[in-house]
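Recap quiz, item 2
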Amino acid sequence: MSDSEVLLEIKGLTKAYPGVTANSDVSFDIRVGEVHALLGENGAGKSTLVKMIYGLVKPDSGTMTLNGAPYAPAEPRAARASGVAMVFQHFSLFDALTVAENIALGMENPPKPRDLARQIREVSETYGLPLDPERTVGGLSAGERQRVEIIRCLLQDPRLLIMDEPTSVLTPQEVEILFETLRKLSAEGTAILYISHKLEEIRALCDHATILRLGKKVATCTPSETTARELAEMMVGASFDAVERAEKAFGDVRLKVAGLSAKSPNEFGTSLKDISFEVRAGEVLGIGGVAGNGQDELLAALSGEITTAADMVSFDGTPVGALPPEPRRTAGILSAPEERLGHAAAPDMSLTENAILTAAAREGLMNKGFLNWPKSTAFAEKVIDAFDVRTPGPGTAARALSGGNLQKFVIGREVMQNPEVFIVNQPTWGVDAAAAAAIRQAILNLAARGAAVVVISQDLDELMEVADRFAALNEGRMSDIRPVQGLTVDEIGLMMGGAHDMEVAHVDA
Amino acid sequence: MDFGAINPILLVASLMVSATPILLAAIGEMVVEKSGVLNLGVEGMMITGAVVGFVVALNSGSPMLGFAAAALAAAVLSLSFGILTQYLLSNQVATGLGLTLVGLGLSALIGKPYEGMKAPSLQDLHIPLLGDIPVIGPMFFQHDIMVYVSLALVAAVWATLKYTRFGLILRAVGESHDAAHALGYKVVRIRMMAIFFGGACSGLGGAYLSLVRVPQWTEGMTAGAGWIALAIVVFASWRAGRIVVGAYLFGGITVLQLNLQAAGAQVPVALLSASPYLITIIVLVTISARGMHGAPASLGRPFHASH
């Protein structure tokens, strides 16, 4: 379909925020019925660009033309009326409302509830996205939530469908089914703007790709004729060190989890069900799984935020399951949760203060209840130096750091305390490629020094890179634990729960 | 002690009158909180409604005009809360407390010349047929119009939230203002409308106190009714039906304990006076302890489109 007419023409779009230029003079065309990739690292300006197309942000300068007519949506409503629909990365859904109510909220003129439920069933059957309109969204899995968003868009017969990082919450099998749905849509004439930083996906799916770096367009190319390496170089613009793994021999069991069951403290969370595993000295256990399958709860149970029966978690043979976080930290069990602002770090406190919050006991930053400021500042500076955190100094508020820099700081803060057991959730989420490599290297170095490490992540490539053994969480249960060497993508997908009752689209193209 | 002195027909009839101010304020505040805004200024808006309603009714001779003026005055006052919290992003808790202080002070100033005067009273309706039924008629069908307005308002709020598109959008804004904004809904405008409605309801509740329940103006006459309304919204798990239960329970026990005091019950007066608060809280906590609490997920969180 690459020769067909242009649907959306983007010319010289520019948008600046105080201090940063998010997009600078970006131009490219999207043709009718093509799958067009928008590729770039975090912070390259992909999100701002699609927000301008969807009417959430007004460009400073530049023009857009849709089907030959000038296109300048003042709000998402106008964009939807023109046939532009969007599936968000962080789903724009309402937990307490039902599927049908959520879909009605995204439509201009929703039909009566009964007709809407019927339409939802029709569309979901046609495109292989089974969904019950009466269910409350808070109880749905991440993949099901995405279906809600996609169906909401499809009910409006869009001419351009924008998808922002749609596969980050799916198993490999679910990704394949999603791609089938997207290919059918494209064959029916719907153009798709597909945002991602996963190169192989783009090579498998997209007709054209536009690459952004630091807000500027680097190139538009045909991904099937370009190697992943070339795409990566255009995207990153520099080379970075590959992660090195030392040869290792594992020691004694340091962390033992036996029959761990715990109820989620969160109303819509996932409870842990009978999880057992052991991690030996020098070993990295990788835990994969689609988001929301018990990852947060597992980290909380290991760090002490959720306490359990004492013998459910043992450290060097001592039961610690009933201990709260502080004694566990003192003993050497350190952890870094997924959400860096608000969970791993207090946003409005300085880096020094944030360092004290977890390192006070192990680094001796406190004396009889009084804080030792010089020592604390020195420790924060040590973390900043060792992990190359770009910040004016340790007195800066955590909120002021970019996501990647703060991530380096919260990981570094734990690593610099020489943990005996280290548990980390999504260590490189939203971090650029070079920093991600540095963080992974730090994790491997930690294991090489004899610590037991648990890495929870949704990035399978990352787990394959750092982990010795792999397991997946699915609805709060843990799969078998398998050595990473020799594991195939299909096997991993099945461990993650397979395709979660999705089916391939039934449309005849 | 003489329980025979307590007339059940009069008891039920005065229960409805006693509960109406709290019911009006609580149903308004429920709408505000459903949209994700916590307005702690209910007490201040009620007493503003009480004094403005009293003054206007006294000067015009029309209680209905008094109610209209009270609703408008309290709603305008609530808009100041709305502008501060929604546009200028001030802290909702502090601003709400400030609104209560402003309302108490302002009403004392306005009401000073009117203390001890008698307001024109609102006619009791005598609903044909239903009002003629013995026992039940005097209990339920011979009240003034505002009693029925308050119940109709609860029914209207319930149906709007459950069945209409506007109600759905309002609930959505209260659940997740970021998601609602991403879909293109005007979060701030919808919240301002909810705040305005909540203010008007509080004003009606206040005017009912000064024009029907008491009926005269005394400084600080709401005496915590606004706080009770706020508590009832929470304990009723943000459900319209339970708000009626809570308000009528509170009103009923208030009337009952006064009757018991008059009848000379052998219970300490302090305990009797505290009983409406204690029993209302115990009952509503028991109801809400069973299932989900249903607090709107964005309740009290500030919203700005840039985040």
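Chain A has 16 helices and 23 strands.
The domain at 253-495 of chain A is CATH 3.40.50.300 (Rossmann fold).
End of item.
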